[in-house]
Amino acid sequence: MPHIDLPPDIPGIRSGFAYRPDTARPLVELAEILLRGESTLSRGERELIAASVSSGNGCVYCTTTHGHYANLQLDGGRPEVTSVNADPPSVPVSRKMRALLAVAEKVRQGGPNVTESDIAAARREGASDRELHDTVLIAAAFCMYNRYVDGLATWTPDDPAVYQAIGEKLMAGGYLGILETLPS
Questions:
Q1: pLDDT per residue over 67-97, tens digit each?
Q2: Which of 2, 46, 103, 107 qualifies as a cystine partner to 6, CB 3.0-4.6 A?
Q3: How crowded is residue 74: how many other Cβ atoms within 10 Å of its Cβ?
């Protein structure tokens, strides 16, 4: 049961967005830029970072939503997403992506946990400054999004089909498509 009077039957972060559309716009625009904008990291890789951070934070809604969306965009699909949530060191990704996921995990634990050696390790695997920047910002943003979802106790559906449908809508309209569904 949500802590405040959120619109019924709207899951997760979308219910907070519907409650306060004026604050939704900048949050959605940030997600669009970080997860779908121009980058040398694929959309699936960026969604994998979001799902991994969300899993570490215990945010079921965001883990499942971004896991499904990553699954739709990654060549490896479900095995990659499942393993990043269950056993991050075993995830079948490139060495660079593994190093970036390690940086994201340190950000999730708290920014000061990211060390020069973490950054150096990612650079040795080919991570650029832009990829490091975006990984840190994705991880930090998802800590905020996760706390927004769980701090309001938003509705988290149990039905995997709900998350599949969300992923398909994101594939079709991106994050900005969410804004079209909000009350004006």
A1: 888 888 887 666 656 656 666 666 678 899 9
A2: 2
A3: 20
How far apart, in Å, are the Cα atoms of 92 and each of 13, 58, 81, 120? 29, 22, 9, 21
CB neighbourhood size of 7 (10 A): 15
Q: For the CA atoms of the chain, what is the radius of gyration?
A: 16
Of 20-29, 32-41, 44-53, 73-82, the one with minimum mean pLDDT is 73-82
Residue 7 has which token pair?
């619109």
Domains and CATH numbers, the chain: 27-177 (1.20.1290.10)
Query: Model pTM?
Result: 0.93
